[in-house]
């Protein structure tokens, strides 16, 4: 999913089922192609943690909080 924010940021969001998400093979390349400024993987767990220097795994409630703050 791609979300274009009013602030001109582009958020790339991949949604995964389960509590142990893995990034898709081409996720970073696709994010780079579309110029994503924030990259998230939403999963069924309850924590937030980085999986690389620019990709964050995040629970749905926490993601909605971030989305609502913009």
Write a brief structural summary.
The chain is α/β, with parallel strands linked by helices.
Give keywords.
2 helices, 70 residues, alpha/beta
Tell me what you see in this structure:
The chain has one domain (2-68). Helices cover 24% and strands 33% of the residues. It is globular, with a radius of gyration of 11 Å. The chain has a 5-stranded mixed β-sheet. The chain is α/β, with parallel strands linked by helices and 70 residues long. The protein has 2 helices and 5 strands.
Strand content: 25-35%
Order of helix and strand elements from N to C terminus: EEHEEEH
Q: What sort of overall outline do the alpha carbons produce when their principal axes are compared?
A: globular
As residue ranges, the low-confidence spans are: none
Helix content: 10-25%
The gyration radius over C-alpha positions equals 11 Å
Q: How far is it from the N-terminal to the C-terminal residue, by CA? A: 17 Å
Number of strands: 5
Kindly name the structural category: alpha/beta
Sheet with most strands: 5 strands, mixed
Mean pLDDT reading: 89
């Amino acid at each position: 999913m791609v979300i274009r924010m009013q602030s001109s940021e582009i958020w790339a969001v991949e949604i995964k089922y389960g509590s142990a998400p893995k990034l898709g093979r081409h996720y970073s390349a696709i994010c780079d192609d579309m110029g994503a400024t924030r990259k998230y993987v939403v999963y069924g767990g309850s924590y937030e943690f980085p999986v690389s220097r620019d990709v964050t795994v995040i629970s749905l409630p926490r993601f909605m909080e971030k989305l609502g703050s913009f």
